[in-house]
Amino acid sequence: xxxxxxxxxxxxxxxxxxxxxxxxxxxxxxxxxxxxxxxxxxxxxxxxxxxxxxxxxxxxxxxxxxxxxxxxxxxxxxxxxxxxxxxxxxxxxxxxxxxxxxxxxxxxxxxxxxxxxxxxxxxxxxxxxxxxxxxxxxxxxxxxxxxxxxxxxxxxxxxxxxxxxxxxxxxxxxxxxxxxxxxxxxxx
Amino acid sequence: xxxxxxxxxxxxxxxxxxxxxxxxxxxxxxxxxxxxxxxxxxxxxxxxxxxxxxxxxxxxxxxxxxxxxxxxxxxxxxxxxxxxxxxxxxxxxxxxxxxxxxxxxxxxxxxxxxx
Lengths: 188, 115
Fold this sequence. Notes:
The structure holds 2 protein chains of 2 kinds.
Chain A (H helix, E strand, L loop, with lengths): L2 E4 L2 E4 L7 H28 L2 H17 L7 H22 L23 H12 L3 H11 L5 H8 L3 H22 L6
Antiparallel strand pairs in A: 1-2
Chain B lengths: L2 H9 L9 H10 L6 H9 L4 H65 L1
């Protein structure tokens, strides 16, 4: 038996795997509340569509509920959520031919040069990230939203570490070039 | 850490979904589970089902119609084949007659030249 402790509640998921749904339901709400920000943000940054991101995040948690018996620890839970959310985001993008919704040329050039938190620059970066190919996008989002290092990203996305590093390097070069063209004075 | 790294961290920071997100997930959990493909198939198999009635009606209408169309097509083809054979025969007869006429003309020409 494995117990996952979430906010003081123990989810004894492997005790009765067949009836995990009924047993885990009260604690499951706490699991959702604890991780909804992470899952929703992954989808939101990936898809740039709040309704779609919310729908996808809900689907991830529904899938988690079905697979709760297989979750072995809180760390495994976080890993599982990141993996499933990323996979679903990539699938969603491929299925609906979402990419490229933002062509690089359509993105407005940032005008401010302020090094403090610049909402305009953040918005532009968000759109630039959303214009990346899906795997590169997933790598960048996991790197900067979740603060994962390349080996962790490689595990989440089931790809070699070298590929992750390559995606990251190329994506950063592209983002840097695009930004440098418009805000040349800022040392990137 | 570069300026771009910092900006990306800010741009891609976590955001919370709507306040009732968890409630909506739980509400969806409480809904009847979506039937799997074999459950849907077994539902279709359970008589009497409107789908089966519709399928039966369609099959009983479409099959005879298809049969009639097929027979008509076959008749057209047979008639076409017959007409083709007749045409070929007529061309053959006309050709041989023409050949005979040409031969007679040539023979008459030769006789004239001897005279």
